[in-house]
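[Discussion] Sanity-checking designs against the backbone

I'm trying to build intuition for which residues belong where. Below is a structure token string of 426 positions. I'd appreciate it if someone posts a full sequence so I can compare it with mine line by line.
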């Protein structure tokens, strides 16, 4: 991609409405633009990151054996009445009417729709277990949207639902999804904790949250400094326990001591049990030929929220520092004097074409601006590696390699292997 052709409206300063780092940097880096309160357009740079995370999630879900479907965003009132959530969800559920005065809502989650699909199409235990997922836009009418896409009204989410004949099978599906989410977060390159949690409006027997650790997290979690133990402090408050007291004490699992940390909830997995299946009469014939109520699990991971969470964990005073696997571009070629020196322009274009053919995503900064503007923009948008072609190329046939983390090196322009090794080692 040529920088001169890319819609990338960067800003020197963030709008006053931007409160947290990710919101400020996503606006400054030209990733998103506000349409209405809690509703954003994803511009090309932001969409590239969003799609990379979406692809990682899809690959891991497919590897787990889950099957992708696509359900509607608009749901009829009748389904939500079956579970009594039409009223229970309150004003967060955006209700609408069509031209025939029939009631619908914009889906904040899809338990009712998926359960209706299964009860009408799956008849025998032999067809189980099933795990179906979708990557879909959700809408929740937040009372006070804030923090950009972190707490927006419209967002992109992967939600999946498992259907099982008994509790043991549900436990297997639940643990499979737990491991799948760990693989997703590990591939992205984030520090996270899995904490016991309150099931909230979704309900069910038990649930766990996946928290990306970050200073601007909305949730407070008590974690062990030496093990995987973690619990959302909301649960402690329900038990009338003092949060600041589960701090410096031995961890309940016997490993390490408790620390209080801030986290951003990016995923939530639930054992729903029979909660929705009973109310919606979702049954199959068991091995004895009798009707048996299904056991369900529900598993959500916020794809758009993961973009913001990644920034909250990876930034400095210059801008975003993307983990390699989700960076909008792998490499930025900064061509100094691109419009003045044909040799520099030719070398930059040749290197760009060579790297692109090797399946690297490359941005060629062919603008008329000077080095200062180009490097500041590159640091702001967080590209992992800059290859600078300028005076050193004219004099010594060398390019300067400058990683986003500050490491630098000079190499012959035709030494592609060394250039790529430098990139991979960052």
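Best answer:
Here's mine. Compare freely.
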């Amino acid at each position: 991609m040529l920088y001169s052709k890319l819609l990338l409206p960067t800003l020197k300063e963030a709008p006053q409405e931007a409160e947290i780092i990710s919101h400020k940097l996503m606006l400054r880096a030209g990733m998103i633009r506000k349409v209405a309160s809690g509703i954003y357009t994803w511009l090309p740079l932001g969409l590239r990151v969003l799609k990379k995370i979406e692809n990682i999630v899809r690959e891991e879900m497919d590897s787990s054996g889950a099957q992708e479907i696509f359900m509607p965003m608009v749901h009829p009132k009748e389904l939500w009445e079956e579970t009594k959530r039409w009223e229970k969800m309150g004003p967060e559920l955006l209700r609408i009417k069509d031209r025939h005065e029939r009631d619908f809502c914009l889906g904040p989650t899809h338990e009712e729709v998926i359960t209706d699909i299964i009860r009408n199409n799956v008849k025998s235990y032999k067809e189980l277990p099933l795990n179906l997922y979708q990557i879909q836009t959700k809408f929740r009418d937040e009372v006070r949207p804030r923090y950009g896409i972190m707490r927006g009204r419209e967002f992109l989410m992967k939600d999946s639902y498992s259907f099982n004949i008994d509790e043991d099978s549900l436990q297997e599906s639940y643990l499979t999804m737990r491991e799948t989410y760990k693989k997703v977060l590990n591939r992205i390159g984030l520090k996270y904790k899995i904490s016991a949690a309150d099931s909230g409006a979704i309900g069910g027997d038990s649930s766990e949250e996946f928290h990306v650790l970050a200073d601007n997290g909305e949730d407070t979690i008590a974690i062990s400094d030496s093990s995987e133990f973690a619990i959302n402090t909301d649960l402690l408050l329900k038990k009338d326990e003092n949060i600041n007291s589960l701090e410096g004490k031995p961890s309940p699992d016997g490993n390490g001591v408790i620390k209080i940390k801030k986290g951003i909830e990016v995923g939530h997995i639930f054992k729903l049990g029979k909660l929705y299946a009973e109310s919606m009469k979702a049954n199959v014939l068991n091995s004895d030929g009798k009707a048996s109520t299904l056991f369900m699990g529900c598993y959500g991971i916020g794809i758009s929220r993961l973009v913001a969470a990644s920034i909250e964990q990876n930034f400095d005073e210059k801008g975003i520092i993307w983990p390699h696997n989700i960076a909008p571009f792998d490499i930025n070629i900064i061509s100094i004097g691109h419009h003045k020196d044909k040799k520099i322009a030719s070398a930059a274009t040749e290197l760009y074409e060579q790297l692109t053919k090797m399946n690297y995503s490359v941005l060629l900064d062919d603008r008329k601006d000077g080095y200062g503007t180009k490097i500041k923009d590159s640091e702001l948008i967080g590209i992992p590696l800059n290859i600078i072609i300028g005076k050193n190329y004219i004099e010594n046939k060398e390019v300067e390699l400058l990683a986003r983390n500050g490491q630098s090196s000079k190499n012959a322009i035709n030494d592609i292997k060394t250039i790529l090794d430098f990139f991979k080692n960052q």
